[in-house]
Design a protein that fits this description.
The protein is α+β, with helices and mostly antiparallel strands. Helix content is 39%, strand content 8%. It has 36 helices and 16 strands. Strand 8 and strand 9 form a beta hairpin. The chain is elongated and about 130 Å long.
């Protein structure tokens, strides 16, 4: 398991080391050096430890070893550690040459000064209790700029380094920044103007009102829910090579709702890790446990489910450690952690919390959830009560279905004796004719075999007068071994298409009242044969919607029921069969029968035959047919179903799906250390392990030792990590970097906080506010530190080139999903719908060309085409291309921080991707509709508006001139190419605008949306 190396080291400068008055702090200055260069051989891992020397513990470091000590407190020159560091002998030098590591002059100076000052050790800063810190005082000249205690911590440190904070950002920059950070959408120009006017009169009130409005927006939950879903490794597929679809969007809805409701973070934690273990858990609490059902499932044949179950548990351990503790617990899966005080045994004790769930590399336990259910608020109590009653009635009817079906079957059996049944008698043809020359011959069973003739044949068959009245004719199509695929038709697959049937008595047409068949090909119903059209017909292929068990190349029949029965002896009977749709789709073998009584429905006849079979001898098809017919006849159940459906619709509930949740086994599994991480090699010598937490952290206080107790421990105020890790990560979202830069590693390899007192103050505030994330967000966003301008300053470049002191705000490229979302909001196409199933916006062809199983991507239509990127269906094996282009992870594992890049491919995507092209057209349409005409004044208005939409500001004179020239140039080029103009112009625009003019504004929108400023949060 790869452990992360530190991104930065001590904040102490080389000049400070030379100052004998400077106090060296172990956690800030020394631990990062020892952890990076020494702990691999002289740290917590006993198996990798050399010479039994531990430099992570003072007792071992200063111990006398035959007259020598690695560290002699107060005497660096007499410490063997310093001698080994400074020696010229490559065989003696530390770190060893083969490690590829070495100490620079600054690090050596720090170690020397620390030893000379007494070599004082400290417990690692992140494992110490959260300190109760008072905000410092700041220079009076900055007091008026202070908005809340955050600023006191930041300004005081700036003051100590001789640097001043930056002035506040201008109002238009600030509102765009705040919109992007809190809801991930662009502010409307009207909102920008209103805020700017309010800000000019009372900036403090304006900012607080803006922040409150955005925190109360339903889109706040979408924006900050995306960050949490990264940590939950949320996706819409199972992963690995099969990567089949899964239903997890109800969990996403739960996250959005919880964040919008400002669910306290301690409860937010408990419900996700152990909602199923709460007393009488609600459905939302069960859905919340989907956090750890987002693990991968291997659906390949021949895999060992137990192996992949263990991998899921390991993932749950590592994810929990990363998300709540900020520790690389996974480094201890195969051996004790080489840098942090976490043993392999402690890893598997933590593993034991998650080792007892029901799922075994499968979908496992699920709950039923309806669309919209987890997002509903303020439901009408009367409707809710009525729905409860309707569901109870529905449930009652469902429970009595078998009894009611048995009674219905008895009624059918009794009724059958009172109803006449069709008395089919074969008709024997006296004349046969095929218009295209096909040979027609009568077989021994009176059926007629038709040879190959014209591509579209018409058969005319005449029968003698009948001895009885004729109420209906039956046309039977029959297989024959001389026909393709032993079917009843001449088509290559044995099918046929019969377009029209006509019946004559003598030379007079007979009116056919209705027709029915035992089977019709979807899209080719038997009713087509009497609709008078030569462009449709009856066929018998199998397709979606066909009855289960039906076969194409088998006997089938159609009944033609006359409006009035033909009287006895009324004359010869002529039947004409026309094939006018597909070439060579003629019937190959058929027979005609007559009945003096009209037949019941074909299915009714099949039903009676099924009912004739003894109950214990009925086939699955018999049972299915009987059950289906009873369902049709079950009026009470249909009414109950309809009532429930109507009430659900009134309340706002959609279709119901099953989503995966956690459930605990009745009997716990045994947990052992896995030798070298191999789940097949159990360390029986150490023996059975009980669930527990690392000893370096406060102990569990409860007796349960299950996931619920673990969740409560994580959010206890005695745990020093969860609050620190959480506020640090929130801070990172606003400034691009956490107060602890290694936000996923608060261990010894991690960075020391740039503002340790501020970190602890924020952690305390977070807990004392009732774990309110909204309170934390408001605190940060209303601070003067957050509101600073992001402009580059030469003095800061020299004193603090990485802006660790926060003398200005950072410019940040927005996340992948927000790139799409701001494009949609600028275009005016954005669908504001919250939650629900994932959607499939347009994507390039060939995305699944190299996946093991080809995915079907049917592009969503209507509003679903323009939903926020949060709702885009996400396959782990082949993620949505636009998202990966802008650095979205594949969610194979936990992601606590995304990388940020700026690549040519991103610009090409913004310019050419189909979705962004549609957005450019939408923005162009928006611009065309805000002004009338094509004159310079109207165009100036449009240019002003497009800058306000995209950048929340007005263009400079130079920018406006450049855009106007570009628009004119594009209009000229499109006028020379009318086809291109029609393709590029918005799909809907006023007829009064020439296509080339409309297309030119699409080009303008496309260019401005592709600018760096568009996808950057200032």
């Amino acid at each position: 398991m790869l452990c992360l190396l530190p991104a930065s080291v001590s904040a102490t400068s080389a000049q400070e080391v030379d100052d004998s008055a400077t106090v060296i702090h172990f956690n800030r200055d020394i631990r990062p050096i020892l952890s990076d260069k020494c702990f691999q051989c002289h740290g917590p891992d006993s198996e990798a430890r050399e010479a039994e020397l531990r430099l992570d513990e003072r007792k071992s470091a200063v111990a006398d070893r035959d007259g020598n000590a690695a560290i002699v407190a107060g005497q660096a020159d007499h410490s063997s550690m310093m001698a080994r560091i400074l020696t010229e002998d490559p065989d003696e030098r530390m770190p060893p040459v083969e490690t590829g590591k070495s100490l620079n002059a600054r690090e050596i100076a720090l170690l020397r000064a620390w030893i000379d000052q007494g070599a004082t050790y400290q417990e690692h800063w992140s494992f110490l209790p959260i300190a109760d810190v008072e905000p410092p005082t700041v220079d009076p000249q900055w007091t008026q700029q202070v908005q809340n205690p955050i600023d006191r911590f930041v300004f005081e440190k700036l003051q100590r380094h001789g640097v001043s904070p930056s002035p506040p950002a201008v109002a238009r920059t600030l509102i765009r920044r705040t919109y992007l950070d809190l809801i991930g959408l662009l502010p409307d120009p009207g909102a920008v103007d209103s805020f700017a006017a309010h800000y000019a009169g009372d900036s403090e009130t304006a900012v607080r009102a803006l922040v409150q409005d955005l925190l109360n927006s339903p889109h706040y939950g979408e924006r900050w829910g995306r960050y949490w879903l990264d940590q939950a490794r949320y996706a819409d597929s199972h992963g690995y090579t099969i990567d089949g679809d899964r239903v997890m969007w109800p969990y996403r809805d739960w996250v959005i709702r919880a964040i919008n409701d400002d669910m306290p973070f301690d409860r937010f934690t408990i419900e996700q890790l152990a909602g199923d273990l709460l007393p009488d858990p609600s459905k939302p609490q069960l859905v919340a446990t989907g956090f750890h059902r987002n693990t991968l499932i291997n659906q390949e044949g021949g895999t060992d489910n137990e192996q992949f179950r263990n991998e899921e548990v390991v993932d749950r351990v590592n994810t929990t450690g990363a998300v709540w503790l900020g520790l690389t617990l996974g480094c201890a899966q195969c051996h004790s952690h080489k840098f942090d005080p976490i043993s392999q045994q402690e890893f598997y004790q933590f593993f034991a919390f998650f080792n007892h769930t029901v799922d075994v590399n499968n979908v496992g336990p699920t709950v039923d959830v309806s669309e919209g259910e987890l997002l509903l608020k303020n439901i009408d109590p009367e409707l809710q009560a009525e729905l409860v009653d309707a569901k109870a009635e529905f449930s009652k009817l469902t429970k009595t279905k078998s009894k009611r079906q048995a009674a219905w079957e008895q009624t059918i059996q009794v009724a059958r004796t009172e109803q006449p049944r069709a008395d089919w008698k074969s008709l024997v043809a006296t004349e046969l004719n095929a218009a295209g020359g096909a040979k027609l011959q009568t077989l021994d069973d009176h059926s007629i075999l038709a040879g190959q003739g014209a591509a579209m044949e018409t058969y005319t068959v005449r029968f003698p007068p009948t001895d009885d009245p004729v109420a209906a004719l039956r046309l039977r199509v029959l297989p024959h071994d001389s026909l393709p695929k032993n079917g009843p038709g001449h088509a290559g697959n044995g099918n046929f298409v019969l377009s029209r049937v006509e019946v004559l008595v003598g030379d007079k047409p007979v009116a056919i009242n209705h027709v029915q068949s035992d089977h019709s090909q979807p899209g080719h119903p038997v009713s087509n044969i009497i609709n008078g059209s030569a462009k449709s017909g009856w066929a018998i292929n199998i397709g979606k919607g066909s009855r289960a068990g039906v076969k194409m190349n088998a006997p089938h029949e159609a009944h033609l029921v006359f409006a009035e029965p033909l009287p006895f002896g009324s004359g010869s009977l002529t039947v004409i069969l026309r094939h006018e749709v597909n070439a060579n789709y003629n019937i190959g073998r058929f027979a005609v029968d007559a009945s003096s009584t009209a037949p019941a429905s074909v299915l009714h006849e099949e039903l009676l035959a099924a009912l004739d079979v003894a109950t214990d001898k009925r086939t699955a098809e018999h049972k299915k047919l009987i059950a289906a017919e009873f369902t049709k006849a079950d009026v009470a159940q249909r009414r109950a179903t309809s009532h429930v459906s109507e009430l659900r619709k009134k309340i706002g509930l959609g279709r119901t799906v099953k989503t995966m949740v956690m459930r605990e086994l009745d009997k716990a599994r045994e947990t052992y250390i896995h030798i070298r991480g191999d789940f097949l090699r159990k360390d029986k010598d150490t023996g059975l392990l009980q669930p527990d937490v690392p000893g370096v952290l406060p102990p569990l206080t409860g007796d349960a030792q299950n996931r619920l107790e673990l969740a409560r421990w994580l959010v206890s105020k005695e745990n020093p990590l969860t609050a620190r890790v959480t506020v640090n990560r929130v801070w990172m979202r606003y400034f691009g970097r956490g107060l602890v830069e290694t936000e996923n590693d608060f261990g010894t390899q991690g960075s020391y906080p740039t503002h340790p007192e501020l970190l602890d103050w924020l952690a305390n505030e977070f807990m004392s506010s009732g774990w309110s994330l909204k309170t934390l967000h408001e605190l940060i966003v209303t601070s003067a530190t957050y509101r600073q301008a992001s402009h580059r300053r030469l003095d800061l470049d020299e004193a603090d080139p990485r802006n660790l002191l926060l003398g200005r705000q950072n410019r940040l490229r927005v996340d992948a999903e927000i790139v799409r979302d701001i494009g949609l909001s600028a275009s005016g196409l954005l669908s504001p719908k919250i939650g629900g199933p994932s959607v499939r916006p347009p994507q390039p062809e060939g995305v699944y060309a190299f996946t093991q199983t080809k995915k079907t991507w049917t592009t969503s239509a209507g509003d679903d085409r323009f939903r926020r990127a949060l709702y885009t269906h996400f396959y782990r094996s082949a993620p949505y291309p636009m998202l990966t282009t802008f650095d979205a992870p594949d969610f194979q594992s936990v992601c606590t921080r995304r990388p940020r890049s700026n690549t040519p491919l991103q610009s090409l995507t913004m310019a050419n991707d189909k979705t962004f092209f549609e957005m450019a057209q939408g923005l162009a349409n928006r611009l065309l509709n805000i002004a009338n005409g094509t004159d310079a004044a109207a165009n100036e208005h449009r240019i002003e508006e497009v800058f306000r939409v995209c950048y929340a500001r007005s263009p400079t004179t130079a920018e406006a001139t450049l855009v106007a020239e570009f628009q004119q140039q594009q209009a000229t080029q499109f006028k020379a190419d009318p086809t291109a103009a029609m393709e590029v112009a918005p799909k809907e625009y006023a007829d009064s605008y020439p296509p080339e003019f409309a297309a030119s504004w699409t080009a303008v929108a496309r260019a401005l949306m592709n600018a760096d400023e568009f996808v950057t949060r200032e």
